[in-house]
UniProtKB/TrEMBL annotation:
Limits of the YknX-like beta-barrel domain: 258-339
Protein name per Swiss-Prot or TrEMBL: HlyD family secretion protein/HlyD family secretion protein
UniProt KW keywords: Coiled coil, Membrane, Transmembrane, Transmembrane helix
Species: Geobacter argillaceus
Cellular localization per UniProt: Cell envelope
Membrane spanning residue stretches: 6-25
Domain of life: Bacteria
UniProt keyword annotation of Coiled coil present: yes
Pfam families the record matches: Beta-barrel_YknX, HH_YBHG
């Protein structure tokens, strides 16, 4: 009997423990971690507040493709030092250079036409126009004489209506050619009309604009370094294609390195700009880098963080800060660090 009562008691105790875990366990598992801080000194400066951070460059540039095409060559490797204005990458320009040559030829032709209208015509051009007009006049005279002859013969019944109509048609054609010759000669004698010169000038401006546009696009086929610094990423190789917006290279300026860290909301009021800080990292165990809080950003960021329970999570608020170090010797962009504020 005693053993039976003891077994029942143990089972009852286990049931109570299970109920207690079911009621309290989730709240315990989802409890937010406490921030690491140790009070405040009499001067108001934080003692012992820490935050995780990363080394980053204040000048961080990703160069993307401005054109669609095939990469002809990449002139830098990952980690290379570059100077501002240095050529880094070049696309194949065969097609666009062919278009440019066509546009240059079109511009030259348009300028020649406008110059001819603006400056007048050569003496030999005028002489040729006069000679052409005289030939046309002779043809008209001959055609008119033939038409008159055929009409007299027709009136006498010595020719057919078909022959008369043919003679009349030849006369009309000759008179039309004479009219064209007169207009051509008048152009040489009196010059071109203002509207013709205006149209020729507009053609020149249009050809120049098209060439200028192609020259502007051609510049985008070559990628230059906008800053002096390091190549932190190379994303394309020679022979590969790229669309507009495709990332090509990543540049940073190592002279603008800084520490970016995030404070938990509970520590925000304990860290101020100008406050001293110490930075440590696993890469240099035992070494401490001295620094100063350079910037406390006025925006609080919300982050979702997993709890011990894989099915649960909670939100935490953080504030971004920048720390400037006295010495960055040996530090690399992307290193993780721990910041301790004094």
């Amino acid at each position: 009997m005693k053993n039976g009562r003891l077994g029942i008691g143990i089972i009852g105790a286990l049931i109570c423990v299970a109920v207690l875990i079911a009621l309290v366990g989730p709240k315990f598992l989802e409890r937010k971690p406490e921030p690491v801080s140790v009070g405040t000194s009499s001067t108001g400066q934080t003692v012992g507040v820490t935050a995780k951070g990363v080394v980053e460059s204040g000048t961080d540039i990703e160069l993307s493709s401005q054109v669609k095409g095939t990469i002809r060559r990449v002139l830098v490797e990952d980690g290379a030092t570059v100077k501002a204005g240095q050529l880094l990458l070049e696309f194949d320009t065969t097609k666009i250079e062919a278009q440019r040559r066509q546009m240059m030829a079109a511009l030259a032709a348009a300028e020649a036409r406008y110059r001819e209208m603006k400056d007048g015509y050569r003496t030999e051009d005028v002489a040729m126009a006069k000679s052409g007009r005289e030939r046309s006049q002779a043809v008209v005279t001959q055609a008119k004489d033939e038409f008159d002859r055929q009409r007299r013969l027709y009136d006498k019944g010595a020719t057919t209506l078909v022959e008369l109509n043919r003679a009349e048609e030849r006369l009309r054609v000759a008179e039309g050619e004479l009219g064209s010759a007169d207009a051509n000669l008048a152009k040489f004698r009196y010059g071109t009309r203002n509207e013709d010169r205006g149209q020729a000038r507009a053609e020149v401006e249009r050809a120049r604009a098209e060439l200028s546009f192609v020259d502007g696009v051609l510049k985008d086929y070559r990628v230059y370094a906008p800053i002096s610094g390091l190549v932190a990423g190379r994303f394309r190789d020679a022979g590969e294609g790229a669309d507009i917006g495709t990332p090509l290279l990543h540049l940073i300026n190592p002279e603008t390195l800084r520490i970016r860290a995030e404070l938990e909301e509970t520590d925000v009021g304990r860290v101020k700009e100008g406050q001293k800080a110490e930075v440590t990292m696993d890469a240099y165990r035992g070494k401490v880098f001295a620094g100063t809080v350079a910037k406390v950003f006025p925006v609080v960021l919300k982050k979702t963080q997993k709890s011990f329970d894989p099915m649960a999570s909670f939100d935490i608020n953080t504030q971004k800060i920048h720390v400037r170090l006295d010495n960055y010797s040996g530090l690399k962009n992307g290193m993780t660090v721990t910041v301790r504020f004094k």
